[in-house]
Specification:
By secondary structure, the protein is mainly alpha-helical. It folds into 2 domains: 88 residues, DNA polymerase, domain 1 (Orthogonal Bundle), CATH 1.10.150; 177 residues, hpI Integrase, Chain A (Orthogonal Bundle). The protein is built from 13 helices and 3 strands. A 3-stranded antiparallel beta sheet has the order 1-2-3. The longest helix has 21 residues. The radius of gyration is 23 Å and the shape is elongated. The N and C termini lie far apart (67 Å).
Amino acid sequence: MSELVDSIERFIGAISKAGRYSDNSIRAFHQDLIILERFLSERGGVAGWEDVDDSTARAFPARLFQRGHSPRSIGRMLSSCRKFFDYLINEDTVKSNPFTGISAPKVAQKLPHTLSVDDLNTLLDENIDAGTSMNIVRDRAIIELFYSSGLRLSELASLDINTIDFAENQIRVIGKGNKERIVPVGAMARTAVKDWLERRGEYANPEERALFVNFRGGRLSVRGIQSRLTEWARRKGFSQHVHPHALRHSFASHLLESSGDLRAVQEMLGHSDISKTQIYTHLDFQHLATVFDRAHPRA
């Protein structure tokens, strides 16, 4: 193993042990740094990390852009490089961080896709009775919970049966960076989850703690949830793909439109930076602009 790769593996081991990052984030760090190592090997002239200077660091995002990487993915890779070199500084491997101040190409802000209230009513309108299949009862609870509480896909997949508090009408969520937050759960979602819990015991393995389980009795996976939502939307007559994140975006947009409370929406979404939440103010302005164009006599 080369010195460069060996340092990467030690870094990955260190952040894994620290427990500050999710498994997905750790895999992304590893992937990004291996791409950096390959770039340095192709470029030549770098025997160790101390040989990476400002010029080499600036050439890295330029090469990535030439190879078709998006500005967003380049930005993530540069962030990984900065964190890695901060680690190397602490380990006395290098004296400075050559990636400090280097940014990715600008990316145009893409507004998230949301569903209208009417579309959501169509999506969620489902009569449940004793003869309703297990899949329908479970999937309705999943979709209601997505929209009611604005959960990320990974957050919903990781829910256990003890994370929802019906007495307080709230749910405990472990989000990015293993940060815990408490999110309200609406009446319709609570009813849907209770309906599911009445049936869950027929399918779940005895020791399984997952709130949502598959037909084998184990935890329903992220991919499984995506597949079930796709099938549900198709059955409801939707021509466009309905991704779980569209339900989270719809939650945020509709809540902000009704309340105007950006800070509250930020907390419920689990955003560490309010600038991530502010994108929903652009959606709200789009709605207002549409109303103005349609209704104002001088528009």
